[in-house]
Write a structure and sequence with these properties.
By secondary structure, the chain is mainly alpha-helical. Helix content is 58%, strand content 5%.
């Protein structure tokens, strides 16, 4: 009399059966059982066709990929510079944490341009672009602050001029102002641009004149550069093999 749990096949003693060995090792991509050999894609096992497909899909580094990454990276750096400067000008707060967003934008833009290709030259480029965007943002910020200061000074001087009976020593000092139409010495535009660029690139270190705030700013900038560095590392895929599968215990007992 047979019950529901009674096996219907006769027992055999020549081949050992092990729990969990019914399907053996399987390819992690197609889930097909591996027979004689296998490949490793990073740390997972794969059959030969799947390993070949992965290899074909790995983006290759070439001049076109790097050029596109550079163009996208420059665009991302310009966008980051604008966002950094605009935030500081509108709010009046110069917050170094915006450098983290700039690093992310540059790294993301370069990866979009390269199609996922990365490497040392991409990382170095991303760090340079991120540093340039963050440091050069000091130029429009300083110009905006100077413009606000000049506007406030002119407003004060205009009020003092409209009230000649209330002249004070401050009025006398302000009387040397040459007015908007007075001739001024104008240097070379190119020299001015170079000078502003040099000052802008050095601005993170010039802030060390206030040691505590300057050091915090440098640390945050360094973290932003790390963001850009890590994001442009690219896709890391290592394919190795083929490796021969060891004989299963069942096979060994059967052959014996």
């Amino acid at each position: 009399m047979s019950g529901p749990n009674v096996p219907t096949t006769p027992p055999q003693f020549r081949t050992a059966e092990y729990a969990g060995q019914a399907g053996g090792d399987r390819c992690k991509f197609c889930n097909q059982p591996l027979t004689e050999s296998f490949f490793r894609v990073n740390r997972v096992m794969a059959c030969a066709p799947c390993a070949q497909q992965v290899k074909l899909k790995i983006p290759s580094d070439n001049h076109v990929a790097f050029t596109r990454a550079l163009i996208f990276g420059v665009g991302g750096a310009i966008l980051g510079l604008i966002l950094y400067a605009l935030f500081s000008i509108v709010t009046g707060w110069i917050i170094g944490y915006v450098a983290l967003a700039v690093g992310w934008i540059v790294g993301r833009a370069m990866m979009m341009g390269s199609g996922g290709v990365g490497g040392k030259r991409y990382q170095i480029t991303a760090v340079i672009l991120t540093y340039a965007a963050v440091s050069l943002a000091a130029i429009p910020i300083d110009i905006a602050q100077a413009s606000k200061a000049r506007k406030a000074e002119r407003t004060e001087q205009s009020q003092l001029r409209s009230n000649p009976g209330g002249q004070t020593s401050e009025t006398a000092a302000g009387s040397t102002w040459d007015g908007p139409d007075a001739p001024r010495h104008r240097g070379s535009i190119g020299a001015a641009i170079i000078s502003l660029t040099v000052v802008g690139l050095a601005s993170p270190f010039l802030e060390l004149q206030e040691p505590f705030d300057g050091m915090i700013g440098l640390v945050i900038l360094f973290v932003g550069l790390q963001f850009a560095w890590r994001m442009t590392r690219g896709v890391s895929v290592k394919i190795s093999g083929p490796f021969k599968l060891p004989s299963s215990p069942a096979a060994q007992l059967s052959s014996g």
